[in-house]
Amino acid sequence: MSIREYWKLKQVAVDRYLKKSLPSPKSKPATIHEAMHYSLFAGGKRLRPVLCLAAADAIDPHWEVALPLAGAVECIHTYSLIHDDLPCMDDDDLRRGKPTSHKIYGEGIAVLTGDALLNQAYQLAATASRTKRYSVADLVAELGYAGSSKALIAGQVADIENEGKKITLSQLRYIHQNKTAALIASSIRLGAMAANATPRQLEALTDFGQSLGLAFQVIDDILDITQTSEQLGKSAGKDLTAEKATYPALLGLDGAKKEANRLTQKAYQSLKPLGKKASRLEQIASIMLSREN
Ligand code: GRG
């Protein structure tokens, strides 16, 4: 099976899982459930759940055990996008090729949709099964950390506070590590934990996730200036308008491309202890490096 087919298979599995597990869009109160479905099924790449399931697959062929966690990380990711697009944050009209949640449902419902998806994530995670090494509490604590004021929210706070300011590469790295890489790394860790990874396997996959997560955001910075809004499904050129520090702004376009490449090579290296079992994760990292949206 090609890596594209592999990706599609995992994407279909997570979409089916989410459709089955969330309240139906018609259930009362319909507005909030419709809004949750609208953003969740707007056409995201499903990178985080696919990584979660592929990490589980690298440890144990029964990767389906990671579906509650894969669904949970996509709910947290989608909540963060809805809130990030609000007028009080990045103020964006376009996401996943469609009008943003607040453009369709209004700001109040968009805030609540993000809140509902965040809580839904924990409800899903709580249905995961324990393994010999990890309890359900371990899984929920990992998910909680990924979305916390020490990770996702820390990155968003630093991003807001540094808008329009000149910052150093290490400050930029802090933003990207927290805003983007932490949830990506936790998605991988959660998949591995659901499949009962050994401490050594978990450590290797954590390193992989951190490098891949950072590479992903460096590439995102590059795409923001090299692609059109149509290609991205979100507003292009946003970083320049918002005077955001980015890798291309600090290192130049070529320097940023080299950095994305360096981080991806580092990610490949981290997978060495897992041997052939990690080939799908390596292929996903390679697709990420050459992605166009
Ligand atoms: C509002 C709590 C809160 C956090 C916001 C994640 C985030 C922090 C903001 C979203 C905007 C942004 C630029 C995030 C960086 C991570 C990123 C590149 C998100 C887009 O991820 P993709 O490309 O999106 O995987 P799809 O739509 O494919 O799922």
Record the SSE blueprint.
Layout: H1 3-21, H2 30-40, H3 47-59, H4 67-84, E1 94-95, E2 98-99, H5 101-105, H6 107-125, H7 136-146, H8 152-162, H9 169-194, H10 199-226, H11 229-232, H12 238-241, H13 247-270, H14 279-289
Antiparallel strand pairs: 1-2
Helix pairs in contact: 1-3, 1-4, 2-6, 3-4, 3-9, 3-14, 4-6, 4-9, 7-9, 8-9, 9-10, 10-13, 13-14
Keyphrases for this structure?
mainly alpha; globular; two-stranded antiparallel sheet; binds geranylgeranyl diphosphate; 2 strands
Average pLDDT reading: 94
**Which cofactors or ions or other ligands sit in this model?**
geranylgeranyl diphosphate
Cα distance, first to last residue? 23 Å
Q: What is the CA-based Rg, rounded? A: 18 Å
The H/E string reads: HHHHEEHHHHHHHHHH
Strand arrangement in the largest pleated sheet: 1-2
Let me know the number of strands.
2
Oligomer: single chain
Biggest sheet details: 2 strands, antiparallel
Total number of helical segments?
14
Q: Determine the fraction of residues in helical runs and give it as a percent range.
A: 55-70%
What class, by secondary structure content? mainly alpha
Shape: globular
Low-pLDDT stretches are none
Percent strand = under 5%
Give an account of the 3D structure:
This protein has 293 residues and is mainly α. It is 70% helix and 1% strand. The protein has 14 helices and two strands; from the N terminus they run H-H-H-H-E-E-H-H-H-H-H-H-H-H-H-H. It has helices at residues 3-21, 30-40, 47-59, 67-84, 101-105, 107-125, 136-146, 152-162, 169-194, 199-226, 229-232, 238-241, 247-270, 279-289; strands at 94-95, 98-99. A two-stranded antiparallel sheet has the order 1-2. A hairpin with a 2-residue loop joins strand 1 (94-95) and strand 2 (98-99). Helix 1 (3-21) crosses helix 4 (67-84) and helix 9 (169-194) packs across helix 10. The chain is globular and about 50 Å long. The model has no long low-confidence stretch (mean pLDDT 94). Bound molecules: geranylgeranyl diphosphate. Geranylgeranyl diphosphate is lined by residues 44-45, 47, 77, 80-81, 83-84, 89, 96, 152-153, 156, 179-180, 217, 220.
